[in-house]
Amino acid sequence: MPRGIPNPDPTMYGITRLIQGYGWYVFLRRRGRPYSAEFRDRHYGGRQGSLGAAKAYRDRLVCEKEPLSKREFAMIVRSTNTSGIPGVRRIRKASGHIYWIAETKLPAGKSLHRTFSAGLLGEEEARRSAIEERQRQLESVTGLVLFNSMATVSAEAANRKGGRRGVPVGANPRG
């Protein structure tokens, strides 16, 4: 599949054909750390052998390297954050009113959202209330951050022994 277009086949999650067409490339990112390896056809007895080795390596990564939980992902401080607290921001309306907002994104495009007026509560109390609300909102966030459809891959990987013996995850699989 071309870069940037998700492969619709979940059994190919994290695996792409090398541009030169002589092997497979596995790439996964877990907790910010990239894991990658190339599996060349000539080292594995052809296209199917190299694909099998690539899938085994990918499956072993999926089993051994846990992805971020959705709650952990929601707690990442983004570069655009100005309050220092993920999901909490301060806004000033055109009218001059100041508000602190607690917001948490949920699956299916929904979000939890609550606003606290600095004019009514005072600046510090509004900020504190927004932080407390954000913590309450995070309690409803569950599950893992998964890109693409990995349910099939994860189930298959959990029921199989993966990869070549003696090759640690993250190491060059060819030695």
Keyphrases for this structure?
175 residues; alpha+beta; three-stranded antiparallel sheet; 22% strand; disordered C terminus
Number of helices: 5
Largest sheet: 3 strands, antiparallel
Assembly classification? single chain
Low-confidence stretches: 149-175
Helix and strand run: EEEHHEEEHHH
Helix share, percent: 25-40%
Structural class: alpha+beta
* End-to-end separation: 28 Å
Major beta sheet, strand line-up: 1-2-3
Radius of gyration based on Cα positions = 22 Å
Per the principal axes of the C-alpha atoms, what is the gross shape? elongated
Explained architecture:
The protein is of the alpha+beta class. The protein contains five helices and six strands, in the order βββααβββααα. A three-stranded antiparallel sheet has the order 1-2-3, with helices on one face. Strands 4-5-6 form a three-stranded antiparallel sheet. A hairpin with a 5-residue loop joins strand 1 and strand 2. Helix 1 crosses helix 5 (151-158). The longest helix has 18 residues, at 47-64.
Task: Describe how the helices and strands are arranged.
Layout: E1 15-17, E2 23-30, E3 33-40, H1 47-64, H2 70-74, E4 88-92, E5 98-105, E6 111-117, H3 118-121, H4 123-138, H5 151-158
Antiparallel strand pairs: 1-2, 2-3, 4-5, 5-6
Helix pairs in contact: 1-5
